[in-house]
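seq as requested:
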Amino acid sequence: MPSLKSRNKKGRDLDDRLFWLPKEEEIKNAVTTDVYFEYAIEALKFARINPKVTMEIYTRKLPFQNSEWAIVSGIYEVAKLLEGIPVDVDSMDEGELFLAVNNSTVYEPVVQITGRYQEFAKFENPILGFLCQSSAVSTKAARISYAAKGKTVISFGTRRAHPSLAATIERSSLIGGLESVSNVLGAKLLKKVPSGTMPHAFILCVGDEVEAWRIFNQALPKKIPRIVLIDTFSDEKFAAIRAFETLGSDLYGVRLDTPSTRRGDLKKIVQEVKWELSIRGAGKVKIFVSGGLDEAEVLELRDYVDGFGIGTSVSAAPVIDFGGKIVEIEHQGGKREFLSKRGDISGKKHVFRNERTFSDIVTLDEKPPNGNYRPLLRPLIRNGKIVRDFESLDEIRKRVEKSVKKAATSEPVLTWM
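struct tokens:
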């Protein structure tokens, strides 16, 4: 097989890779940064200016309707990115719920970096990339998981995203509360068993629904649940009946993936399927729905189905627009100069939460306010060394579930002093 370089004589192929993807070492070395950071570093070196600064990563506005809370994720990647760089980093925990109140001047930083600016300037770009994308997916997953009211929700969305993001999307989805993932590599890296059913293409290749269900049942290991598609060729109600008649007690569930242009009133279709299976002694057969579902559909269907396959609404969740801003400079002798650009508020901030009242206080004082408050920002890196033990994925999920339930059933308050 000819080498990449030999095939690239006319400049049509890449010299050192097949796909338009950064290598891990290129991300680690911030080659994926924006060039204006390199311009700034070069100019500062020329002028011999390299102040010790504190930069905060935060957002003031969330892209989710009627919501002032979100879940931060991507902290692990930020730690790995900055490991070995001579900086100090404080951050919220992976999966922490933070507030962003639209009409408030004050904000909650999710990450703070203190160090000589030239040492970390070029890392701002990948830091924001990790946090913006991962946090968006985790937040959307948390909203849908809460809306599902305990029903199974599976991540089906990586086919709608760049393959390089598959594992990140699946991890962020699980952090937010989805029960399982369908992506093979994502599940492998997360040490989970992937979940899935069958594609329409399989049934089309066989050419007959009943025969396809039989083949699937005969070919696949018994540990794989027999969940069959019932909307490829015919009415879902009658297909569900045939599926039970075909597979009997082997049938674990049926899945409706009917596109919105053809399905009419999906709730009524689901109710029909549920009724027809029930009166035939198949009341234990699970009903799953998928195909372009979002929070509204989950809320409408959750009382009638056993689970959801959620795709694009999570994997392509609207990005949380974090930004990185310098808020103070430390001069010789430890003197702090509060300094920020127009429109920002200066000074390194501390965020404390009262779990009972779900009220947050932002302050410049390191001491917690009176009452039962805990700090949301904790040491992550000290002089380039990671100083935090990361929780397991399951531990993070439990904490997220508890926080989301609290936020959804109360009115979180953000104040400052």
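Residues 124-147 form the longest helix (24 residues).
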